[in-house]
Amino acid sequence: MSKTAEKGSGTSARPRLTVLSGPSGVGKSSVLSELRGLGEDVYYSVSVTTRAPRPGEVDGQHYHFVDRAEFDRMVAAGELLEHAEYAGNCYGTPRRPVEAALERGTPAILEIELQGARQVRRAMPEAQLVMLMPPTWEVLVTRLTGRGTEDPAVVAHRLKVAEQELAAAEEFDAVLVNSDVRTVARELLTLVVGSPTERVSSEP
Predict the structure, then answer these.
(1) What Pfam families does the entry give (predicted)?
(2) What CATH number matches the domain at 17-45+107-193, 3.30.300.30, 3.40.50.300, 1.10.10.920, 2.60.40.10?
(3) Which helix (DSSP H) or strand (DSSP E) does residue 175 occupy?
(4) What is the C-alpha separation between 197 and 174, in angstroms, rounded?
(5) Over the stretch 174-193, which tens digit does the pLDDT of each residue have?
(6) Please, which residues bridge with residue 86 across strands?
(7) Which of 31, 61, 166, 197 has the fewest CB neighbours in a 10 Å radius?
(8) Residue ranges for the binding site for ATP?
(9) Would you list which residues are annotated within the binding site?
(10) How far apart are CA 88 and CA 73, in angstroms?
C-alpha cells in the first residue's frame, strides 16, 4: 500500500507544481483522469508538440500543436520549463501558464517522463516530483505486452526504458503504487493540494 504524507497542522502552504512521472503503461493518464473527476481546483498543464494532431485531439485541450520553427523559438526564448524529442517529434511544457496558476493560488500538475522531470527540478527546484509505479514488474510487463499488436523490438525498448525510469525512484519526493486507480488518485490529490511533504515512499 502506498504511504502518503499527512497535511500540515493548519499552516497554509504556497501552491506548487507537482510533476507526475512513471514508465509507459503504468497508468498515468488514467490516474489523472480520475483526479480530474474529484473536482478540486487544480491546473493541468497542456504540453506543446510539433507532431500532427491525432483523430479526436483538440488544440489547446490535448496539446498545443505548433510547427518546428515555433517550437525552436519557444525554446530559445526560455518559454518552456522542459522539452525533449521523441520519435522525431518535439514536446515541451509552457512555463507561463504554470507560473500564472501558481501565482493565483492554484496548484498545478504536469505529466511527463523522467528526462522532463529532471529538467523541471532544475528549472523549478520547489516543484514536487511524484513517481507512479506498478504493483509489480510483472504487471507492467503484462500491460506493455498484453495487446500483442506491437513489434517485439518496440516492446523490448519500452521495457528497457521502464527499468531505467523505475531505478530513478530515489530522485523523487514521493512514490505511489498504482494498485487501484481510485485510491492512488486520492493519494495524489493529497500531495497536490496539501502542504509541502516530507519524502514518502511505497513498496511495490
Answers:
(1) Guanylate_kin
(2) 3.40.50.300
(3) strand 174-177
(4) 9
(5) 999 999 999 999 999 999 99
(6) 89
(7) 61
(8) 22-29
(9) 22-29
(10) 18
